[in-house]
Amino acid sequence: MNARGAPTADRAKPQLPTKALLVPLAVMLGLLAIVLRLWYLQVVRGEELSRIAVEKRTVRVAVPPPRGKLLARDGTVIAGLSASLVVMVTPAAIQDDLGAIRRLSSLLKLEPAELQEMIREHEYRKFLPFVAKVGLTTEEAIRIEEQGAFLPGVFVRSEPLRKYPFGNAFAHVLGHVRQPTKEDIERLASLEDLPSFVGQTGVERTYDVPLIGNCGHDSVSVDVRMRPTSPPVSEPPIPGEDLETTLDVRVQLAAFEALAGRKGAVVALDPRDGSVLCLVSSPAYNPNVFLGRLSPSLWSQLNNDARPLFNRAVAGAYSPGSTFKVATLISAIRSGIVSPATTFVCSGSTRIGNRTVRCLGTHGRITFQTAIEKSCNVFFAELGSRLNREQVVGVAGEFGLGSPTGVDIPGEVGALLPTDEWLERKGERWYQGDTVNLAIGQGYINATPIQMANYAALIANRGVAYEPHVARRRGERVEVDRVALDSMWWDRIVRSMVQVVESGTGVRSRIEGVRVAGKTGSAQTGGGRKPHGWFIAFAPADNPTIALAVVVENSDEGGRVAAPIAKSVLEAYFTSRRSPSGDAPNSGR
To answer: Residue 120 and residue 127: Cα distance in Å, rounded?
Structure first.
């Protein structure tokens, strides 16, 4: 600028409107990109995208097949079906719609947070509907259907649900069903679709696939809010297979009622083929509750200190106490320590090394028959002092102790037998006092009730046992354990066990008209607690058709508590098999 304020030559040059040009140019380029994208989508990929759009608007919903029934040995339905109205929720369609969640929660009488938690639990299969509530009334179902326009991915249908007519009594042997978890999806990966409920425990779990059958399908056209736009096209399901079991309803109910909620178990077998006549664990639970959502209070009850979900019959491990003395006796017979004339003097206790073993009575000079009948600790402690661990453990292993029996119920354990491998793994040293303890069924030895029922069956058969099974096998039996011993010895052992019931520690198991052979046991638990009471038995003694084991935790001596329970079970068994003349048939079937 000059002194008079006139513009300079530079200011006189025209300026390009840069910003004014760039903005329209950017808009034009953006519009061009949109046009090109639309052309690409509509012309180049139009047919493909139209097909995808149609496919995405067709929902294929699995239609669960009726689950196969579970039948007792006489054909009684012990797990059946009952039609129920259920509400199905598809997580992907509703999880972000808080209004729909609040509306459905109100209709289902739930807190919105509860429904949201259910939706989160099924996030792993969010495009598949899950059962949000069972047992809807007709009025509830109508209200939900009326609100369908505001409830995306929600519908009501009738579904045949599992029904356990005997409730708690068969809980641990049959198990229960519930909605599938991630683990179930992996376990049942061979199935094209999963039903709303699958087996979780017991027979329901073992035979899940044949019981499930094959899902059918409803193909439904829906709008963007997952609402049906046309009637479904249906492919019917194939029902699951019914499963015949070997269970006897009367025997099962008698065992359940005799335990009366006390912690313990009863297992009864047909020794001729391993058929499971009853399998009860107590306390039990109602398997029907798993069809619906478990409230926090109910879940707490199922997981309390009594552990009602725990299957004591196949997974409860207890010292066998004096029931083990038969195995000790056979070890001594094989080792040449005992003959029919062998005697020891029982003065009420004996001192072996630095250990004093006490007896319940003072029996004087006795043979092994009286020692079995009176359950004399002194006699068997003397045998233990003359045996070594390998001799006792060897015979116990032949009885099947220390290994699962192979019963077709999940969760079975092998319990504890002090083998070389076990000692090495635990880093334990073994002393002669441990063998003395082992000889009377205490110390480093545990057994499950089903193992002890199998043990009783092996004695009943004079040396052979068959694999326990709940599913009926037509003419098939699998030998699993064998103990070789001269028949003369087996006869003497059985006679001594008959005396246990006739005049010994097991008199509370006597029943009219049937010779019962049995053995009591009391397993010390320490800590000032009462012992676990055991009783094993089989009958009729000369032609056994039932063998059983009873254990009651922290109860009393086996003869006081477990033997009366065995009596109830045996009475139920033989009452249901009486012939018109009043005699128990030999077949025991």
So the answer is: 12
What sign does the CA torsion over 397, 401, 406, 412 have? negative
CA distances, 2 to each of 8, 13, 502 (Å): 7, 17, 139
Other beta carbons within 10 Å of 322? 29
Longest Cα–Cα distance in the chain: 148
Nearest-angstrom CA–CA distance, 122 and 180: 9
- For 445-486, the DSSP string reads -BB-HHHHHHHHHHHHTTSEEE--BSB--SS---EEEE----
Q: What is the identity of the amino acid at 315?
A: A
According to DSSP, residue 61 is labeled: E
Q: How confident is the model at residue 14 (pLDDT cuts 50, 70, 90)?
A: low
In this structure, are residues 218 and 61 in contact, taking their beta carbons and an 8 Å threshold?
yes
> How far is 180 from 194, CA to CA, in rounded Å?
8
Residue 194 pLDDT exceeds 60: yes
Percentage of the chain modeled with pLDDT above 90:
70
Domains of the chain: 59-244 (3.90.1310.10), 249-287+310-575 (3.40.710.10)
What does the block give as tokens for 249?
């309803």
Output the pLDDT for position 221: 78
The β-bridge partners of 351 are 356
- Render pLDDT for 467-521 as a digit per residue (tens, 0 to 9): 999 999 887 889 999 999 999 999 999 999 999 999 999 999 999 999 999 999 9
- In this prediction, residues 27-46 reach a mean pLDDT of 66
